[in-house]
Amino acid sequence: MDRETVHEQFTDLGLERIEHIEKSTYRFHITSDVTGETYPLIVTTLTCEQGRTVMNFEEADFDTDANIPLHVRRAALDKLIELELLFLDRTAISLEQANNSSMAQDLDEMKKLGNEMKQMKTGSELLENNQIPDPRQ
């Protein structure tokens, strides 16, 4: 999932981005009806070079040193499950879709592929720079 889509989906679900570089940190406030306190849950995402964004579910944690009640932990788990299902739903494509002999699945991927290919040197350019071209390309 690309960074903009992830950010839009997270903010729609009530998460607030508190840090952003390649890694984005989001905070979601869970309020306990029993204690009346608010417990901030911190979730991070990482955007890879290819533009895909992954969520570090293992690193999700509360931003407090207080003891977290079990029902608040359960609410946090429910939110993480909701986010995981969102990621799985967006990124899953069928084998037939992926196996269509196309290097790019849509126009955005085609533009991205074109930009990546512009930056690649040809075999003769590599030889001019005393580099060995990859015969598989």
List the helices and strands and how they pair.
Blueprint (H helix, E strand, L loop, with lengths): L2 H10 L3 E5 L2 E9 L6 E10 L5 E3 L5 E2 L7 H22 L3 H4 L8 H13 L3 H6 L9
Antiparallel strand pairs: 1-2, 2-3, 3-4, 3-5
Descriptive report:
- Helix content is about 40%, strand content about 20%.
- The protein is α+β, with helices and mostly antiparallel strands and about 140 residues long.
- The protein has two domains: about 5-90, TATA-Binding Protein (2-Layer Sandwich); about 105-130.
- Strands 1, 2, 3, 4 and 5 form a five-stranded antiparallel sheet that branches.
- A hairpin with a 5-residue loop joins strand 3 and strand 4 (about 55).
- The longest helix is centred in the middle third of the chain and has 22 residues, at about 70-90.
- The mean pLDDT is about 80.
Briefly say what this structure is.
By secondary structure, the protein is an alpha+beta fold. The chain has helices spanning 3-12, 70-91, 95-98, 107-119, 123-128, and strands at residues 16-20, 23-31, 38-47, 53-55, 61-62.
